[in-house]
Structure formats: structure tokens, C-alpha cells
Design a protein that fits this description.
The complex is a heterodimer. Helices cover 70% and strands 2% of the residues of chain A. Chain A is an all-alpha fold. The longest helix of chain B has 27 residues, at 152-178. The radius of gyration of chain B is 30 Å and the shape is elongated. The chains are: A mainly alpha, B mainly alpha. Chains A and B meet through α2, α3, β1, α4 and α5 of A and α7, α8, α14, α15 and α16 of B.
Chain lengths: 135, 540
């Protein structure tokens, strides 16, 4: 599967789910982490990607999501176009942050987990800034 | 009672005030100064809420500042909502100082407005009980989350929503003041007030406030916040507010790592690596072509290599890793705000470089700690396995954890990036602070730090020997970070070709990095590491 298809599929899942779903959120964060690692290695220490990687890693810890049960096969060649991956990953991370923010306020989510998810959403918002279109 | 309850109370009181004004018609009440004073008090309460939620404080802005901020949609989109609210609400609050009255009034309109202001002040106190803005910093986990930005967007949207009620009241007051039935004396008395209200209600701010109010859903989580329970001072985590605190934290952490080797866990190493990566990347963002060494790629490799690890001990002393995460988060936030809203970075590149000089030593310490964890067989590594046949490219994934063999090949791939990061010595700038004192303090405990096991020492020698062979002419494939079979990324790959997963054979042309400066090439994880002893000066 192309990375862009994987992002499109994940974003659709995030936008259409009606109740909090750990599995989708965890898989989405893992996908973004994978892209960050693959592209950071290509970009040889691009500070934007590095900041993004650190922020995403921190958000992943903060969210404390359960293990995921779905994984996608990604064609590694699709990470070659760093600018395209940058745009797609930005879209993915914004969708995850929005979902975490909405779910953190969900009535079924305990307050402690809600605060963790809200923190993770804020971290992802910050991380996404480093992938936004260059000025 | 909760934060949300008092916001609702304020909204009800404001709605009641608006109805009262609407019913009153166009006659100016005799107690209008008291009404205007209560109105200003409500605006001040909203400003205080904005400052707590947004952490943006602007002192005494002028109407021209407010006009500038909302002069175009593009500028509004580029401006921090907290700044828009802070400036606009402060300017709106000031009408005519001659009319300011704090005397109690029995006017029902003034009473309702005062009730709204009091409810907002209580809501502010509830937030402050968690955030302790004038003291040590956030006192509770909720406060720490808010200070990191949790609920910020929604909270500011609610402030904007309440401000739209005040705007509606201002419009009613203005209609009253514009009424033709008023005497000349009345018109003269309220000349300044009328002009300021006309500017405020006729500016672009009503539109901006409505948009801000609609930009986020209600902050249900924030609304459930009650007054924070009393907390012991010792349980409070210092709040990072400047780079000096980050430097102090780094020094303290290094000392702690030396003094508590038995308590150091993977979560400490991971948080420290995250902070180190953030500091390195921040240095590079401030100066795109740094004259000093750049460890960004090396620390990124460290972070990547330790990602699938956990330790049997679990997250004990987790406050230390939380503080490191707070520091990294603060640093990232400065750059994110600068990128998004043009907020100036509150420190200079030299200060950051001075901080970065400690990072190779930190890498050394983290490597020692990782050695220790491995030798005590405390490390766990995540293995992912997949169902054999994918359905439409989707596998069923299973995650299992195994104890890491301290003599196996995987530990090498974890220690290698830390060794490379420790070899990235940065020349000390002439004007940087002298780190000798801190190192002298740490020198003695370092000497007492437990030695790695003999097996690991042997392993270390093997690593060095292998590096020398690599330098002579081996391929990059010998420097894979993790074996393909144990790496998460293999689940994403049809053909595992990332540098991290161990390329067998040449790197595909499309993925080959563009040749940059020698500095950059050296930092690529695929590149052979420099043959340097840990304490040897960097050749970069």
C-alpha cells in the first residue's frame, strides 16, 4: 500500500468513528512514527523532522494507548518524496490530534485518561506545526 | 462546584442583563456609571481567564494594537487566539476613567453584571488552584496538562463565547446612548464612552470573537474541573519557564543518573534522549548552518533505537522523566509558537549551544545506564508478529515482549547510537558558561558508578573492533540498528529497506540522501561512525 493510501484510510477511520477507539488511534500514531523515522533518516537530521519525531514520541507516551491490532504494509519507496510525506503526515497528525481532543471529552472516557489524551492532542498540535507548509 | 458551573452562571447572568437592557428601552439609567463599572469588571475577569489559559500576557495594549491584529483575515489566522483575546478584551474594558465607580449599586443591571464578573472570578480561581501561576507552577496533574496546552483551544473558545454576550450588552448600551431623547448634558458626559463603544462594536472584533467561539467544541473536560485539593509542596513539579531551568534540570538529571544507577529505567533514558534531540534540533533551527557539531541525526537514531524497549522495573521515579518531558515540551512550544505566530524565541543561539555541550556526556551516561539495565537482564524488547496473509494490505498484528539477551546482537544496535551521540563533541564557544564546575561535581560519582559486566565489556570491545573494520571498507549494511525480524518497521514494509531495519545490499537510488556538507553526511545513521574514543575531541 502507498503511504498516501494508508494515510487516507486512517484519516477516514479517525473522522468517521463515533466512539473512542484505542486501536485506530494507536495504529495512526504508529503510522506517523514510522513515517517520521523513515523520513528523518532520509533527511539526515532535518531539524523540523527531528522536532516532529520528538513531539510525536512524547505524545505517544502521553496518550498511553493500548496495543494496536492492525498493521498496514507500506511500500517504503513512497517515503522517497519527503515533501509529499511531510504533507500527508501533517494531515494524519492533525486528524489524530482532533480525534484525541474530541475523545478526551467523551463521556465514556475516565477523567484521568481524558487529561492524558488532551495533553497528547496538544503535543501533536505542536508537533504538526513543524510539518506545516514552509514559510 | 466546577469551572463549567461558574461559566454557566456567568452566561446566565449576562443573558439576564441583556434582557433587562432590552426591556429598559432607550432611557439612560441614572446608575449607568455603576453599570459600566460592572461591565468593565466582567471584561477584566475574562482577561484574567485568558491569561491563565493562554499564557500570553500583554500589558496595556492600545486600540491601534487591537485594530492591527484584526486588520485582515490572514493576520487573524496567523495570530495566537490568546493574544487576540487578551488585546481586544483589555482595550474594550477601558471606557472612560472619569466614570469608573466601584460603589455598590442596587441597580438590577449592575447587579447582574457584577454577578457575572464574580462567577468568572471564581472560575479563574479554580483554574489558578491547579496552575498556581504566581507560585511554583502547576500543582496537579490537571494543571500540568493545562500548562502543556490541554483544553487551551476549547477554553479560549468559551472565553470568546462569553465575550460575545458582553458585546451584545455593549451594543444595547450604545443604542441607549445614541438615543435622541437624551439631554445634551448626558450626551456630553458619555462622549468618550460612546466613541469607545462605537469603535469596539463596529470593529472587526465581533466577527473575530464569533469565529473564535465557534472554532472549538465545548471543553467538557475543563468544565468538570473542581478546586484543586491542597498538595504538599514536595509533590509539586517545578514548572519550566526559561532556558536556565532547562539547563539546571539537565545538570540535576545527570547528577541523579550518576547517584541512582539502580533506579534508572528505560523511561528516564527515553525522556533524556527526547530532550537531547529537541535541544539539538532547536540549535539547528536557530542557526541552519551551525558552526558547531550537530547531533540531531544521532539523537534521532538513539530515540528510534530505544523505542521498542521497556524495563521490568516499570516506571519508578517517573517524576524525573516527566520533568524532562516538560522541558522538551517547553522548548518545542517556543519554536512552534515562533513558527506559527511569529512569537520571538526567548533565548539566543549561544545559550543553546552551551546547553548542547553537555549532550555527549549525557549520552555517555545513558549508555552506561543502558549497559547496566542490560547486564541485570532488566530490559524487555517488543516483538511484533503478523498473521501470514494480509487482507487488502491489512495485517492482524500481535505484540509480544521478550527479555533482551545482554550478549545478543540487538543490544549492540541499541548501544551503538548512544556511543555515536557521545562521540559528537562540540567545541566550547568562547562566551559560553564554563561547565567545569558541574563536571567536577559529577566526576567523583561517575568514578563510583558500577562498571558494566565483563560480558558487556567484551561486547564493547567487539563493537569497537567491528567499527574499525567498517571504517576500513565495510558496507553500510553492517550498521543496521535493529535486526529486521525484531523491528516494528518491518510490518510496514514489503521489502525492509530503511536504514534502521537493516538494508541488505545497496540503498535504492531513490532513497539515497542528497549529498550535503561533510558534517551532515557524518550524521546520517547509515554512515560509518567516526573512530573516536568517547573522550577524544571531535574531528567535525
Amino acid at each position: 500500500m502507498n503511504y498516501s493510501d494508508a494515510v487516507a484510510r486512517t484519516v477516514t477511520q479517525l473522522e468517521t468513528q463515533t466512539t473512542p477507539n484505542n486501536n485506530v488511534l494507536a495504529a495512526a500514531i504508529q503510522l506517523a512514527l514510522h513515517a517520521a523515522k523513515a523520513t528523518n533518516a532520509c533527511a539526515a537530521g532535518d531539524p523540523d523532522w527531528a522536532m516532529f519525531l520528538a513531539g510525536l514520541n512524547s505524545a505517544s507516551d502521553a496518550a498511553q494507548l493500548d496495543d494496536f491490532s492492525e498493521a498496514m504494509q507500506i511500500d517504503e519507496q513512497t517515503f522517497a518524496d519527503t515533501e509529499a510525506v511531510r504533507r500527508q503526515t501533517h494531515r494524519l497528525v492533525v486528524a489524530v490530534a482532533d480525534r484525541l481532543r474530541v475523545d478526551s471529552n467523551h463521556a465514556d472516557i475516565p477523567a484521568e485518561q481524558g487529561w492524558r489524551w488532551a495533553s497528547a492532542a496538544a503535543e501533536l498540535d505542536t508537533a504538526a506545526v513543524f510539518l506545516a507548509a514552509r514559510q | 462546584m466546577t469551572y463549567g458551573h461558574y461559566l454557566d452562571q456567568a452566561e446566565v447572568a449576562l443573558a439576564k442583563s441583556r434582557n433587562t437592557l432590552h426591556r429598559a428601552g432607550t432611557a439612560v439609567p441614572t446608575q449607568l456609571p455603576a453599570v459600566l463599572a460592572a461591565r468593565s469588571k466582567t471584561y477584566r475577569a475574562l482577561v484574567a481567564l485568558t491569561h491563565l489559559l493562554g499564557e500570553v500576557i500583554v500589558d496595556d495594549p492600545m486600540p491601534t494594537d487591537a485594530e492591527y491584529l484584526v486588520s485582515s483575515r490572514a493576520r487573524v489566522a496567523r495570530t495566537d487566539p490568546a493574544l487576540l483575546l487578551s488585546v481586544g478584551l483589555q482595550v474594550a474594558e477601558r471606557l472612560d476613567s472619569r466614570l469608573r465607580s466601584s460603589a455598590p449599586s442596587d441597580d438590577p443591571l449592575a447587579e447582574d453584571l457584577s454577578h457575572a464578573a464574580n462567577a468568572l472570578a471564581i472560575a479563574r480561581d479554580i483554574l489558578a488552584s491547579h496552575l498556581d501561576p504566581l507560585g511554583y507552577g502547576p500543582r496537579t496533574r490537571e494543571g500540568q496538562a493545562i500548562s502543556r496546552g490541554a483544553g487551551r483551544r476549547e477554553g479560549l473558545a468559551e472565553v470568546a463565547h462569553i465575550a460575545t454576550w458582553l458585546l451584545a450588552i455593549d451594543s444595547e448600551v450604545l443604542t441607549m446612548l445614541h438615543s435622541t431623547g437624551n439631554s445634551t448634558a448626558t450626551n456630553h458626559l458619555y462622549l468618550t464612552t460612546t466613541a469607545k463603544l462605537a469603535w469596539w462594536t463596529g470593529s472587526r472584533y465581533p466577527d473575530v470573537l464569533s469565529r473564535l467561539a465557534e472554532s472549538a467544541r465545548p471543553a467538557l473536560l475543563l468544565r468538570t474541573l473542581a478546586v484543586a485539593p491542597p498538595t504538599e509542596q514536595s509533590a509539586i513539579r517545578p514548572h519550566i519557564r526559561d532556558l536556565k531551568q532547562v539547563a539546571d534540570l539537565l545538570q540535576t538529571t545527570r547528577a541523579w543518573l550518576v547517584q541512582h544507577p539502580a533506579d534508572t529505567g528505560v523511561h528516564h533514558i527515553r525522556s533524556a534522549a527526547r530532550l537531547a534531540l529537541t535541544i539539538s534540533a532547536a540549535g539547528k533551527l536557530l542557526t541552519p548552518t551551525p558552526l558547531t557539531g550537530d547531533g540531531t541525526a544521532r539523537w534521532a537514531a538513539v530515540l528510534t533505537s530505544i523505542e521498542p524497549l521497556a524495563d521490568i522495573g516499570g516506571p519508578i521515579h517517573s517524576d524525573i522523566s516527566h520533568q524532562l518531558d516538560d522541558a522538551a515540551s517547553w522548548l518545542r512550544n517556543q519554536f512552534a509558537r515562533s513558527r506559527r505566530f511569529g512569537t520571538p524565541i526567548p533565548f539566543r543561539h549561544e545559550q543553546l549551544t552551551s546547553l548542547a555541550t553537555d549532550l555527549p556526556d549525557l549520552a555517555d551516561q545513558l549508555r552506561t545506564a543502558m549497559h547496566r539495565l542490560a547486564s541485570h537482564r532488566r530490559l524487555l524488547i517488543r516483538h511484533n508478529s503478523l498473521a501470514a496473509e494480509p487482507i487488502a494490505g491489512i495485517h492482524r498484528a500481535e505484540e509480544t515482549w521478550h527479555r533482551l539477551d545482554p550478549d545478543g546482537a540487538t543490544i549492540t544496535s541499541i548501544l551503538d547510537p548512544l556511543r555515536r551521540a557521545s562521540a559528537n563533541r562540540i567545541p566550547q564557544p568562547a562566551n559560553a558558561r564554563n561547565p567545569v564546575a558541574a563536571r567536577a561535581t559529577l566526576a567523583s560519582p561517575t568514578a563510583e558508578a558500577p562498571e558494566p559486566s565483563l560480558a558487556l565489556q567484551r561486547h564493547d570491545d567487539q563493537e569497537r573492533l567491528r567499527d574499525q573494520k567498517t571504517h576500513i571498507g565495510a558496507t553500510a549494511s553492517q550498521h543496521s540498528l535493529l535486526p529486521t525480524s525484531t523491528s516494528w518497521s518491518s510490518f510496514f514494509t514489503e521489502t525492509a529497506r530503511t536504514p534502521r531495519t537493516g538494508t541488505r545490499g545497496p540503498v535504492p537510488l531513490a532513497r539515497r540522501p542528497t549529498p550535503l556538507s561533510p558534517d551532515t553526511q557524518l550524521d546520517h545513521p547509515d554512515e560509518p561512525p567516526p573512530i573516536l574514543e568517547p573522550n577524544e575531541p571531535d574531528l567535525e
